[in-house]
Write a structure and sequence with these properties.
Elements: H1 7-29, H2 37-50, E1 54-55, E2 67-71, E3 74-76, E4 91-100, E5 103-112, H3 118-135, H4 144-157, E6 161-162, E7 168-170, E8 177-181, E9 198-201, E10 204-206, E11 212-214, E12 221-223, E13 229-231, E14 234-237, E15 244-245
Antiparallel strand pairs: 1-4, 2-4, 3-12, 4-5, 6-10, 7-8, 7-9, 9-14, 10-13, 11-12, 14-15
Helix pairs in contact: 1-2, 3-4
Length: about 250
């Protein structure tokens, strides 16, 4: 069931989203060669708790950390570790959620570490821009297929591919609510967007094939061909005009 929010609920989500956005920015600033992914996770958790908020991902379905931190060919759900040290030239995707006053905010971005290749930098930019291409259609009366089509069209036009097996989602009092929000689709198809729907739109874009697989840790998802992947996400509220970004500073 899709839950349509009221103004009060959207304001509460914006407060949770602002903390998530700041935590993500702080995590991104810490992305440097020689830094462990656990160090980044821990500083993000410390910040979230300092705001009397709770990390949405911690213990969610058994996930053991505050942030998903995924490097290079890791698409999503990378588990932070003391032994996972960021190397020069890596790209690092950080995904974080915040629960505050009963409502969640969910956001992600991909950050370069040190001397990153032009190819990797282009992938990061294509992924970010694919989100904004989707936002051109994220208005009441349009359909999820319009948003997904715009995302995938931009990725494909730039020689990349969209992950099909993992998608965005509704957000609210639950971290994952209806509807699913694919990063692909057909114009004019899919669920119609309604004013005050709140969804997380999160392109996961691969440099190579769209195919992915889960590793033996039960969480980390990687590209099947070992090529790079990038991730970008915001929680948004649908309006009659342009969407309201709830995970902004």
């Amino acid at each position: 069931m899709i839950v349509i929010k009221n103004r009060r609920e959207i304001d509460l989500m914006r407060k949770a989203g602002a903390i998530a956005a700041e935590a993500l920015a702080r995590g991104g600033e810490a992305v440097k060669p020689g830094v462990s992914t656990k160090h980044i996770n821990d500083l993000m958790e410390k910040f979230i708790r300092s705001k009397n908020a709770y990390p949405s991902f911690l213990h969610y379905n058994g996930f053991p950390a505050t942030a998903c931190i995924s490097i290079n060919d890791e698409v999503i759900h990378g588990i932070p570790s003391d032994t996972r040290i960021i190397q020069d030239g890596d790209i690092v995707s950080i995904d974080v959620g915040v629960l505050l006053n009963g409502y969640h905010g969910d956001t992600a971005n991909t950050f370069p570490a040190g001397n990153v290749s032009e190819e990797a930098l282009k992938l990061i930019e294509v992924t970010r821009q694919s989100f904004w291409e989707g936002m051109n259609y994220a208005t009441a009366g349009n359909r999820l297929g319009d948003v997904g089509h715009a995302i995938s069209a931009h990725a494909v036009k730039n020689g990349c591919s969209v992950v099909y097996e993992y998608v965005g989602h509704g957000v609210g009092t639950q971290l994952h609510e209806d509807p699913n929000v694919p990063n692909y689709g057909m114009k004019g198809k899919g669920r119609r967007l309604e004013e005050n729907m709140t969804i997380a739109v999160e392109p996961m874009i691969n440099l190579g094939v769209p195919d992915v697989k889960a590793l033996s840790d039960g969480w980390t998802v990687v590209t099947k061909d070992g090529k790079l992947s990038a991730h970008y996400e915001n929680t948004i509220a649908i309006t009659k005009d342009e969407p309201l970004i709830l995970t902004s500073l």
